Structure to design on (324 residues):
């Protein structure tokens, strides 16, 4: 038994010793682990780059830029009926290009005179379509650079040269109206004009002759080459527009005073029955259709819409203030 008064040597606690061992052991173990980790990191191959997604092959840029071609509808076939004329068919069917395009599409079937279409004739409507606009492919960067260099190299035009190169400005609406009135002739105070800008009259009213069924000329013949613009002498309503037998293609208009004006031997008609017209409005083109010896405008004024109710046409126009 130990003597009293002497200090005992304290024993190392197992816990502390355990920590020391653990700490020492941990340090001993840590080095190999870190080394192993470093060796693993050094020995591992570099990460492979991400694989680019596979793209489907594309068509050339020119083909991608080309717009799809619209499928055109099959052209319709129209059968001419009595009373038809090209401008009426074009208007009723809302044809692009009017009677001129209709005639161009059917020139072989119609013949040289577009006013001579017979009942039963087959016409193709919309036989020729308009070509779709071609879209240019986008320029490559090299092309854009080349274009830019060319633009930079070209000197800017002088103001005077630019003004000379600029297209003439379109006339203002007021100028267009003035031109139309000038071509149609001066409208009288009563609202009437001459039917054509004629240089004269070839056959006067009431000229006798066996060639006319009434024994005399029922109107006046204005000198007018084929295709001359024919205008309504006054405002009114179209009561006849089409084939008139001996008169060929004719137009008859009823005016507010109850009188009727008639325009015969036309090569083309621009109005239809029931349409309202104004003084100086184009109603057709002069020609030589029907019983005619050559191009001119046969003009009548009547008290009724039919043949045999004629009055002096020049006296009537003069009474409306028309200088003729």
């Amino acid at each position: 038994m130990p003597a009293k008064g002497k200090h005992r040597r304290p024993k190392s606690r197992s816990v502390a010793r355990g920590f020391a061992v653990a700490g020492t052991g941990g340090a001993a173990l840590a080095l190999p682990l870190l080394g192993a980790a470093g060796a693993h990191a050094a020995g591992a191959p570099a990460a492979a780059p991400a694989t680019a997604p596979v793209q489907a092959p594309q068509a050339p840029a020119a083909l991608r830029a080309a717009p799809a071609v619209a499928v055109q509808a099959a052209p319709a076939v129209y059968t001419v009926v009595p009373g038809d004329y090209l401008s009426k068919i074009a208007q009723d069917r809302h044809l692009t290009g009017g009677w001129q395009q209709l005639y161009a599409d059917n020139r072989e079937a119609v013949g040289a005179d577009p006013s001579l279409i017979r009942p039963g004739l087959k016409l193709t409507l919309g036989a020729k379509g308009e070509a779709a606009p071609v879209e240019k492919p986008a320029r490559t960067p090299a092309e854009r650079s080349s274009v830019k260099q060319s633009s930079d190299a070209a000197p800017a035009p002088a103001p005077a040269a630019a003004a000379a190169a600029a297209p003439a400005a379109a006339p203002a609406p007021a100028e267009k109206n003035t031109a139309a009135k000038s071509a149609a002739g001066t409208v009288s105070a009563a609202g009437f004009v001459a039917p054509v800008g004629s240089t004269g009259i070839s056959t006067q009213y009431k000229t006798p002759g066996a060639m006319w069924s009434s024994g005399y000329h029922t109107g006046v013949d204005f000198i007018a080459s084929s295709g001359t613009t024919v205008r309504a002498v006054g405002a009114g309503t179209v009561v006849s527009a089409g084939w008139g037998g001996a008169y060929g293609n004719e137009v008859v208009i009823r005016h507010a005073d109850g009188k009727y004006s008639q325009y015969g031997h036309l090569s083309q008609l621009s109005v239809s029955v029931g349409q309202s017209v104004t003084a100086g409005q184009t109603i057709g083109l002069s020609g030589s259709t029907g019983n005619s010896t050559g191009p001119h405008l046969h003009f009548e004024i009547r008290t009724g819409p039919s043949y045999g109710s004629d009055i002096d046409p020049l006296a009537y126009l003069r009474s409306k203030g028309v200088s003729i």
Notes: The CA atoms of residues 209 and 216 lie 5 Å apart. The longest strand covers residues 236-243. The longest helix spans residues 14-43. The domain at 76-125 is CATH 3.10.350.10 (Membrane-bound Lytic Murein Transglycosylase D; Chain A).
